[in-house]
Amino acid sequence: MEVKQNLRYTPDHEWVKLTENGNATVGITDFAQNELGDIVYIDIETVGQHVEQGVAFGSVEAVKTVSELFMPISGKVIAVNPSLNDQPEMVNADPYGEGWMIEIEPDDATDIDALLSADAYMNLIAP
């Protein structure tokens, strides 16, 4: 299970990375995509909306199940990865890269500091 040191994580298995322009990229972790299995559909209809931390911003449909995606920090959803419409399996293949899900404009970028570090997330998934 890959856990990147330069990201922050939620107990709901989302990752967050602050970008150079002050926005944040969000996706699901390698652990999450592995648990879900083959992802067949991504449903995110919150572009342009403000979503509070902990509230669902979309869902992921896999062969086995459907799982909600929860906002790691409060902010406005400004973009959805357009590639996921035709290639949702990119989340399985590259969850920390080409399989990113949304870009947000955070209310407060320092909220990311309160999320789990890579080591803390590893302890959560592999105690």
Characterize the structure shown.
Helices cover 15% and strands 33% of the residues. It has three helices and nine strands. Strands 1-2-3-9-8-5 form a six-stranded antiparallel β-sheet. Strands 4-6-7 form a three-stranded antiparallel β-sheet. The chain is globular, with a radius of gyration of 13 Å. The model has no long low-confidence stretch (mean pLDDT 96).
Outline the fold blueprint.
Layout: E1 8-9, E2 14-18, E3 24-28, H1 30-36, E4 39-43, E5 50-51, E6 56-62, E7 66-70, E8 75-80, H2 90-93, E9 102-106, H3 118-125
Antiparallel strand pairs: 1-2, 2-3, 3-9, 4-6, 5-8, 6-7, 8-9
The helix fraction, in percent, is: 10-25%
CATH fold-level assignment: OB fold (Dihydrolipoamide Acetyltransferase, E2P)
**Radius of gyration, taken over Cα atoms and rounded to an integer in Å:** 13 Å
How many distinct folded domains?
A: 1
Q: Helical element count?
A: 3
What does the average pLDDT come to?
Answer: 96
Structural class: alpha+beta
Poorly predicted parts: none
Q: Write out the CATH superfamily name.
A: RNA polymerase II/Efflux pump adaptor protein, barrel-sandwich hybrid domain
CATH arch. level architecture: Beta Barrel
Percent strand equals: 25-35%
CATH class: Mainly Beta
Question: What is the rounded distance between the termini?
Answer: 13 Å
Query: How many strands, which pairing sense, and closed or not: the largest β-sheet?
Result: 6 strands, antiparallel
Counting DSSP E segments of at least 2 residues, the number of strands comes to: 9
**N to C succession of SSEs:** EEEHEEEEEHEH
Shape: globular
Main-sheet strand order equals 1-2-3-9-8-5
